[in-house]
Amino acid sequence: MAANIAILGASGYTGAELVRLIATHPGMRIAALTADRKAGQSMAQVFPHLRHLDLPTLSTIEQVDFSGIDLAFVALPHGLSQALVKGLPRDLKVVDLGADFRLSPEAYETWYGQPHAAPELQPEAVYGLTEFYRDRIKGARLVAGTGCNAATVQFALRPLIEGKLIDLDDIVCDLKNGVSGAGRSLKENMLFAERSEDVAGYSQGGKHRHLGEFDQEFSALAGRDVRIIFTPHLVPVNRGILASVYVKGDAQAVHAALAARYADEPFCIVLPFGELPAMAHVQGSNFVHLGVTGDRVTGRALVVSTLDNLNKGSSGQAVQNANLMLGLPETEGLMLAPVFP
Amino acid sequence: MAANIAILGASGYTGAELVRLIATHPGMRIAALTADRKAGQSMAQVFPHLRHLDLPTLSTIEQVDFSGIDLAFVALPHGLSQALVKGLPRDLKVVDLGADFRLSPEAYETWYGQPHAAPELQPEAVYGLTEFYRDRIKGARLVAGTGCNAATVQFALRPLIEGKLIDLDDIVCDLKNGVSGAGRSLKENMLFAERSEDVAGYSQGGKHRHLGEFDQEFSALAGRDVRIIFTPHLVPVNRGILASVYVKGDAQAVHAALAARYADEPFCIVLPFGELPAMAHVQGSNFVHLGVTGDRVTGRALVVSTLDNLNKGSSGQAVQNANLMLGLPETEGLMLAPVFP
Amino acid sequence: MAANIAILGASGYTGAELVRLIATHPGMRIAALTADRKAGQSMAQVFPHLRHLDLPTLSTIEQVDFSGIDLAFVALPHGLSQALVKGLPRDLKVVDLGADFRLSPEAYETWYGQPHAAPELQPEAVYGLTEFYRDRIKGARLVAGTGCNAATVQFALRPLIEGKLIDLDDIVCDLKNGVSGAGRSLKENMLFAERSEDVAGYSQGGKHRHLGEFDQEFSALAGRDVRIIFTPHLVPVNRGILASVYVKGDAQAVHAALAARYADEPFCIVLPFGELPAMAHVQGSNFVHLGVTGDRVTGRALVVSTLDNLNKGSSGQAVQNANLMLGLPETEGLMLAPVFP
Amino acid sequence: MAANIAILGASGYTGAELVRLIATHPGMRIAALTADRKAGQSMAQVFPHLRHLDLPTLSTIEQVDFSGIDLAFVALPHGLSQALVKGLPRDLKVVDLGADFRLSPEAYETWYGQPHAAPELQPEAVYGLTEFYRDRIKGARLVAGTGCNAATVQFALRPLIEGKLIDLDDIVCDLKNGVSGAGRSLKENMLFAERSEDVAGYSQGGKHRHLGEFDQEFSALAGRDVRIIFTPHLVPVNRGILASVYVKGDAQAVHAALAARYADEPFCIVLPFGELPAMAHVQGSNFVHLGVTGDRVTGRALVVSTLDNLNKGSSGQAVQNANLMLGLPETEGLMLAPVFP
Questions:
Q1: How far apart are CA B201 and CA B233, in angstroms?
Q2: Which range in A116-125, C233-242, D112-121 is most confidently predicted, on average pLDDT?
Q3: In angstroms, rounded to a whole number, what is the distance separating the alpha carbons of residues A7 and A29?
Q4: Cα–Cα distance between B313 and C103 in angstroms, integer?
Q5: CB 3.0–4.6 Å: which of C80, C100, D1, D151 could bond D146 by disulfide?
Q6: Which residues of chain B form beta strands (DSSP E)?
Q7: What's chain B's average pLDDT?
Q8: What's the CA gap between B146 and D218, in Å, rounded?
Q9: Cβ atoms of residues C153 and C305 within 8 Å
Q10: Torsion on CA atoms C88, C89, C94, C98, rounded to nearest 10
Q11: Strand partners, B54
């Protein structure tokens, strides 16, 4: 029997992507959808591409009867999940797609500029990078989905840091990000006429909040402080993140480490040495494509990692984690092939 | 047990879309893939977005052992299917995605400028517009997939012509077409720099080959010659056709006829009167969205029909037909939700 | 000596386009720029692409000393120009780019839903379609720029209506519009992720406000009421309008009438019979490209007209009119070639 | 009196951009246009956006009477200019936009894989980065236009290398390139459906030919070998290159050096410290925008440089150089403002 799912915050792009994935997921059924400002509307009004589905009307969170719900996805802007999750039933499994439970309360305050409203929940929250926290996720009540950029770069770097294959003080990550990562909220610089035909960086110089995740994860892996150089750039595509990661190390060893680490991972594909992936080849899917090349300058390697920010970077990852939490096969509902072109 | 499928002409976009759909189709498995000029290559080399799949290597058609194949999709440029299909085993079910078996030999010669190479097969070929030829498709050996534009417009017009609801001498169809419909072949006007930021019509003035299908189908429905005005325009999107069909008739009656006709169709959705669909809401799916509005000029109606040219307009339609031919549920493998944004 | 120019409402796209054009216009210099909500900012902050220019700081309208200004362009949202223009000095020449002075007070109220605030100015306002109101514009104090869609379609139809070449009761205009026409204001459906990869109509069914201009102009030309069928569609390009106009008439005569009418017009180019223009070939310029083809259905013609909505459809037209009003050569500053690709 | 200009190789995008720029250039007139494979066609057939211009018919190079020509732009694929330039009259000024005269014969052979056909011309060829070779260009007969990527990165790095402000062994350049840089030739990966919605690197790992220019120029400046890490990525925009250059050095000093160096340059604009430029703000123009920020990791700086590859990166640069060679004001015809949006 399918698990009953609530999606809290269903009127954003990650909410819509959750619905899309669950629509053909044999082990889940959507029992409640909330969107406070759009309560009372049908999902078809908010997202007409889902109008073929028979879905519950959008409600407020207060209107949800959680007694029959097995798992809730929380897809709210950062800062709003904390108090909300605190108020949910203790026996409800929760996958939070936002930033609220990714960091320690201290790091959260540093990067998000406000004290955490539910620090007591932090200890039980498991970081949601499935391929690296799988065992803990299986038993978790609360999983904190990773940042989409954070996921992309960690797939490239974690095995290299763990394997002591690269210089930890010289890691430069240049990201190219699709526009949907900014969500559906109204900002002038997200208008079509502003983004189309443009490429521009943002949060440059070490100011992007996903650095909190990198600091936490990479330092823990390395056993020392690691501070990467990290610059995201908006590119005029809807979905996708492509990270070009410049490292100092032996390129062949770097490739071998990634190939070995992901050999048995269903969603992580490492290309042959010297081949590098393209963003268009993962869109709409839960796959990560990784590639490595050397350089004419010896001792240098380029690692490229690409995934779909709404899917593997957010909602697909969330479903993957939910599968584990619900005792379902990890890949269930997630083997949809990328859509190209 | 899953049916064994061959895809002949797998190196084009419709071939890739077939593989994408079959990848998560429980009733089909891919047993052979051909692409004469790319024989010997893996599908991952030709379409890296499919590299997570375990697929047969591309071969020539001659190399295929058809004895174990249940059904072949033929996705070749027009003109090449005729001789090929003629040479296939008589007991092999065939869904042709090209233009070769859509028209009578005479009409074929008129629109495609060459005599038909297999006129003897024409009588058994069933026109593949599933919603209107379902019963004949179930028993067919050879189904001729429709043109993608032809499908889009027929969904809008067939019930209106059949219901005698519109003036048959004043039908204007203005189409906006995504670029993938032109396929993967090399043409200067299909370069990114030429198509991006452009909108331009083509085959204007009654020269587009899909008019052969309209003439044949609409005249048969009406019991008299029908000649529509039809102009397609290339727009800078990858997938999608949106047809704006201007008719003379009572808009409410037009809407009622479409709503009634498609009430039980799983893939055809008619919006409430006055609401009109958008291309972005069907991309990646087998759904057709239809809408109708009136005009301040009485006696006029606008019918808008939109679908994904690679999916419902081609490969999705083909799988839908193959499901029927193989005795599978018609919707199997095709309920993938549209991908938005 | 260059004329002193004020741009009132310089923070929108048409304001920026005015600045771009005047930047290399030998007969004009920008003396004042206003933007009420952005007063105090530099133009470089609002539009960084103009940062190489030495421009006045944005101010409020109240802060402008109009005594030294020769001509003001008013680029405000509709409804705001009326009271403003009323308050400007009587000897200041004004080109309004908005909708406020295009229509009679009655028609204005019908289409814009509110009474006109300065009906006494209406009689002196000249409709700004330069090629057809040139003589009156030369002597005008107040010129009302046309709607961008309205201009595009009028270039196609005016000579045909005047020449009695087409059936006035069967004119279907299907437009494809670039996104910049919607301006820089924040609307969910103008986000990149919503517009990219989409085509969708709007204001269908005879509801678009530019119909007020068509009714007024075409009825006056014909000496009887004319009501065209008109549907605009948003396409994912920044600039450009391409109108496909379906008429009943002799295609060769239609072409001959357009060719004759525009033979001496510097900005209107009629292609050889049977060739139709593309949106990409006018972007960034003040040119209109027009083409005509017949159809296999005799008595039908397709006229296609395309221009850049921000340039010839708005700011370029405004400069062209200002040239006339200031006694400058009509083409001065406007011969910039289209930018392709 | 305007100088007579020939454009040899006018059927590519840089040829069209030259025509666009010269169309409003008061000191130049186009006297000859060649395109061997399209000889006999009008420029309007090859580039309809230029159809308003009165231009010579395309001819073969052999058909050109060079006696009345003052200067020739050569816009041919690399490898073809060498022999051609050799055969041109000795008193004809030449600006080559291709790669043939940028490098020493040895370096040319290394990077382009074939011996140079006119090594005797190499000594007189001046490298065309105007802002750094201005004095030599004024007296040159033959100027070799730089690579478009090469120009973008050199604007960022030359003053820093010259000022000994950065670690020469740790320079990482990540470029995002518009698609028009690949030209109009037919390649599968340049089709709209392949490039739209994609970001992908190319020539990674130190294989891009513009590295020959970097090696030559940076090593000469530094007085030692310099080898930068350089990765270009194709992004779905038509025009523009944005280089993110990661260096080790004091960010404030880096900014100060750039600001000082370009203070009097008409086309190079350095943003205030901490502000970084966007590609959309230079398109269609000859301007370069530069910005610098520091990082939370001390001793690191990010320099971003952006320009229009067809304009400042190629044809605009060529006109700027031609202005100098012809004794015209350097900025003549080049002050066109960027086109946004």
A1: 4
A2: C233-242
A3: 11
A4: 44
A5: D151
A6: 3-8, 28-34, 58-59, 71-74, 93-96, 125-127, 142-144, 172-177, 200-201, 229-234, 241-248, 268-270, 288-294, 300-307
A7: 97
A8: 60
A9: yes
A10: 10
A11: none
Half-sphere exposure of A290 (CA within 13 A, CB side): 28
C-alpha to C-alpha distance for C196 and A134, rounded to whole angstroms? 36
Distance in angstroms (rounded) separating the CA atoms of residues D151 and D242:
11
Can you read off the two tokens belonging to residue C201?
């109509």
Beta bridge partners of A247: A301
Secondary element (H or E) of residue A3: strand A3-8
Domains of chain A: 3-145+312-325 (3.40.50.720), 149-308 (3.30.360.10)
Q: How many angstroms separate the CA atoms of B244 and C279, rounded?
A: 19
Q: Taking an 8 Å Cβ-Cβ cutoff, which residues of chain C contact chain A?
A: 13, 179-180, 182, 184, 186-188, 190-197, 236-238
* 3-state SS string for B259-300: HHHHCCCCCEEECCCCCCCCHHHCCCCCCEEEEEEECCCCCE
Tell if the CB–CB gap between D24 and C336 is shorter than 8 Å. yes
Nearest-5° Cα angle at B226, B225 to B228: 155
Which residues of chain D have a CB within 8 Å of the CB of C16?
A: 340
Secondary structure letter of residue D113 according to DSSP: S
Run of H or E residues at A299:
none
pLDDT in tens, D72-115: 999 998 889 998 999 999 999 999 999 999 999 999 999 999 99
Question: What is the enclosing helix (H) or strand (E) of C332?
Answer: none
Which residue blocks in A139-189 are alpha helix, DSSP H? 148-162
Closest CA to A194 of C13, D87, B63, B91: C13
The two structure tokens encoding residue D320 = 């700027």
Active site residues of A: 148
CB count within 10 Å of CB A215 equals 18
Q: Which residue, chain included where needed, has tokens 């609220």?
A: A100
The CA distance from B261 to B264, in Å, is 8
Q: Which candidate in C29, C43, C47, C49 is best for mutational testing of the D interface (most D CBs within 10 A)?
A: C49
Tokens of C110: 């019908």
Q: In angstroms, rounded to a whole number, what is the distance separating the alpha carbons of residues B201 and B180? A: 15
CA distance A294 to chain B (A): 21
**C187/chain A closest Cα distance in angstroms:** 7
The predicted model gives D120-132 an average pLDDT of: 95
User: In whole angstroms, what is the distance from residue A228 CA to residue A153 CA?
Assistant: 10
Chain B interface disruption, residue of D17, D191, D308, D314, most B CBs within 10 A? D191
State the DSSP H helix or E strand holding residue C34, giving kind and residue range, or none if neither. strand C28-34
